[in-house]
Design goal:
It contains 14 helices and no strands. Helix 5 crosses helix 6, helix 6 packs antiparallel against helix 7 and helix 10 crosses helix 11. By secondary structure, the protein is mainly alpha-helical. 42% of the residues are buried.
Length: 344
């Protein structure tokens, strides 16, 4: 019932956002704008959007290094793509759970730290997005009259960066004293013990950030991930006919990330609405071109994953039941009587 309600709510939100984007558009003008798009450039944008996952996997490998060094690239890449595919197809962003649970099950990794690396992964995404937004805002070509809106976005980005960095600092601090806390938790009330051990298990996912040797490549790959995404987005927007600069696209990153994260099926509606809002309000792009850019770039994001995902399911011999079985391991997190397992 909960999943059904989430699905219905997400679908209604998608419909409302799509109505906001398209209700005042001339269908013939929009169709003409789509037909004028450069399809080779859009194919390149789709390839880059898929290829950025290589850097994402390499970063995940460094985050997993304290748990187990040199986890193979292939199962991590498969888990990332299948996680994204699940997020596109299943309500509630289940893919964020499937990715670590699948890797944990297939590579026999401890689930708590594996989940923690994905939490760290998402927090690092936020830091990279805000950092690139700050760089882009120095040279972006804001339209006249958008200064107030740009200032509000800067303030929001600064607040978000503070919250994200604080979350990372807290997790690192808990990881540092985790050994002592585990003994204290073993004598606590069962629900407190469970919640505490879940937190400890997740905190083990940021152990890599305590090492300078690991921190440098982790930060570097975080920036590469979002620079490639920004490059793909810039190519796609320009392919759709909107004349924006690369710095303008960096400014768009927080808005587009928010659009994808909205609880709509496959990011439909949210991505389109935030794309149009940013392009029109900040950079004065024609609304029809902005709506077309949202359609085309959303396709460039989701189609490669929806094509490659089933191929990986077949080649790797993974079924939907395997994903469900892997997800069930989450229920056991924190129930162990001894210390949370960190490495094998």
């Amino acid at each position: 019932m909960k999943s059904a309600l989430q699905g219905i709510g997400g679908l209604l939100l998608a419909v409302l956002l799509l109505y906001w984007v398209f209700h005042d558009k001339d269908p013939q003008a929009l169709s003409a704008a789509l037909m004028r798009a450069s399809w080779p450039a859009l194919a390149l944008a789709g390839f880059l959007n898929l290829a950025h996952n290589g850097a994402r996997v390499l970063r995940w490998g460094w985050l997993l290094d304290p748990v187990r060094p040199r986890v193979p690239f292939r199962p991590m890449f498969s888990a990332v793509i299948l996680g994204f595919m699940t997020t596109l197809l299943v309500p509630g962003r289940v893919g964020e759970l499937v990715r670590p649970a699948l890797l944990s099950a297939r590579e026999d990794l401890p689930l708590g730290p594996c989940l923690g690396t994905v939490v760290a992964d998402r927090l690092l995404d936020g830091v990279a997005i805000v950092a690139l937004f700050a760089v882009g805002s120095l040279n972006a070509h804001f339209v006249a009259g958008s200064a107030a809106l740009a200032g509000e976005i800067r303030l929001t980005a600064a607040i978000a960066l503070t919250v994200i960095v604080s979350g990372l600092v807290v997790l690192v601090a808990i990881s540092t004293v985790g050994g002592r806390l585990d003994g204290w938790l073993s004598r606590r009330w069962a629900p407190v013990r469970w919640a505490g051990r879940v937190t400890l298990g997740l905190s083990r996912g940021v152990d890599a950030l305590r090492s300078r040797r690991r921190l440098v490549p982790i930060v570097a790959y975080s920036l590469v991930v979002w620079l490639v995404i920004a490059l793909a987005t810039w190519i796609g927007i320009r392919a759709a006919g909107a004349d924006v600069g690369f710095s303008d696209t960096l400014v768009m990153l927080p808005l587009l990330a928010l659009g994808v994260s909205l609880p709509t099926p496959g990011g439909v509606g949210g991505y389109h609405a935030l794309m149009q809002f940013g392009l029109v309000s900040l950079f004065g792009v024609d609304p029809t071109l902005a709506a077309g850019a949202g359609i085309l770039m959303h396709l460039a994001i989701v189609l490669p994953v929806l094509v490659l995902g089933p191929v990986l399911l077949y080649v790797d011999g993974v079924s939907w039941s395997d994903l469900v079985a892997a997800g069930k391991k989450v229920r056991a997190l924190g129930n162990a009587k001894g210390p949370i397992e960190v490495a094998r």
